[in-house]
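Re: the 394-residue chain
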Amino acid sequence: MTSILHTGDEHIDSDVHGTINPRTGRNTAWESNYATIRHLAEQAVERRVDAFISAGDEFKTGRPSQEALLMLADAYTPLAEAGIPVLFLDGNHNRIGVTSGHRSAIWALAEILRARGGVAEASAEPELVEVGGIQVATLPWLNKNVVLGADAMSPAEGDRKVAEYALAELERLAERADASMPLIMAGHVTVARTTTNDDEGTRRGSERELTHLFSEPILDVTKLEALPFQYGALGHIHTPQTIGGGKYRYAGSPNRLTFTDEPDIKGGNLVHLHTVTKVEQVQTPARTMLTIDLVETDEVPAIAEGALVRFLLAPGDTDLPKEFRAAVTRQGATVVQTKARPAAKPVVDRPVLTQTVSGEDALRTWAMNYSVLDADTLVTAAQKLAVRETEAVR
């Protein structure tokens, strides 16, 4: 039976909620990311998979530091030593800071693994790639400017055109494939149940926090399911999930990058390609995150050692009481964030007046709502004052 291990969105150099480890000089978030990726590589070797696929966003930006590049290469070295082919896709983060048409850091990553005796490929455009006896139709992150050229159109129309281009490319690649070999798709793209930009129901995890998404092409999963792929290895969305009938899956980020990932079970997808494709999650030693809401509780619960803790303060509070921080520290955990809530503002019922209202009616309404005086007394006094002012003018 042919098998692959599928991951993506490693973001090896994401340093959110990390600090410098004084013993290594590395960011603790980097070290945690490394541990989860290395675990997947070692599991791939142990389970003797035929190929390993990383579906994009291996780095935080397209210009990772030398240390980040070497750390990711070290994490994937067990694959090179075992002779397991690995395929890296370009993601949107990999293109940040990289000139259009230039190669991103995944080419350097693949070159390092090849120098260590491995088989590694990188893909930045739709193509048919063979890894470990498996054909992969790749759909890396699509640059709108490259796809659309200088054509002027609205953002929504541009997204639709790019999605149509992507589906056409996948159909073309599927037609070229050798029918005697397993065929899968791997893409760094948003896949949903519709072709609109309303991706409600697709849980994005920390991708929402790492980049603000204005709009992007969305592939209709019903159209993808009409293509002859046995499996769709998806990247770009950080929460592991299945889209549509079951063939197309996001493995999700292997680590918890932000507190948006707190409820997610992190891992990679072990995929068995046969008459019926079977998928199981290989869990990773991801960071533990815990949110404590001081509106819901007034004490610190039991916390796993090494956990990262976030406190949501009660409305109006600006500082975390020292005893709460001490209780977290005693359990071997770390407070990494406190979030204040604004004090609740009193709700004031304001009188509503019609567009045309007499001065007397307006004064009477105000008096009834705000004045300590009797409304009729106040209106009578105002009338007498108005008469006196009129007589004085005469």
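The chain has ten helices and 17 strands.
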